[in-house]
Design goal:
CATH superfamily: Transthyretin/hydroxyisourate hydrolase domain
Low-confidence stretches: none
CATH class: Mainly Beta
Order of helices and strands: EEEEEEHEEE
CATH topology: Immunoglobulin-like
Distance between the termini: 17 Å
Number of domains: 1
Number of helices: 1
Mean pLDDT: 96
Shape: elongated
Largest sheet: 5 strands, mixed
CATH architecture: Sandwich
């Protein structure tokens, strides 16, 4: 089994994205849903029990921005499709985001 963590940074403000809703899906099935903590992190999305296969992380960027009274001029939602391989025990997928741009990568 594999675990998954994520970290979201609001690069427009230079702070962690606190309270950003993230969903983890496998196909059409929602595997987990959580809000980022005070450090913009979700340390174990999926409960450490993810089987190999293709998953999707959905970051609710516009919802987060609106919750702060900010405009949502471009990005509404960021969806990342990725594959979990059986030989990897942990995946960390950070997102750097602003109202107009984002970058994601496989971290450590």
């Amino acid at each position: 089994m594999t675990s998954l963590s994520t970290h979201v940074l609001d690069i427009e403000r230079g702070t962690p994205a606190v309270g950003l809703r993230i969903s983890l899906l496998r196909g059409e099935t929602v595997v987990a849903r959580a809000l980022t903590d005070d450090n913009g992190r979700i340390p174990d999305l999926g409960g450490g029990s993810l089987d190999p296969g293709t998953y999707q992380l959905v970051f609710e960027v516009a919802e987060y921005l609106r919750g702060q009274g900010r405009q949502t001029p471009f990005l509404q939602r960021v969806s990342l499709d990725f594959r979990i391989e059986p030989e990897h025990a942990h995946y960390h997928i950070p997102l750097l985001m602003s109202a107009y741009a984002c970058t994601a990568y496989r971290g450590s």
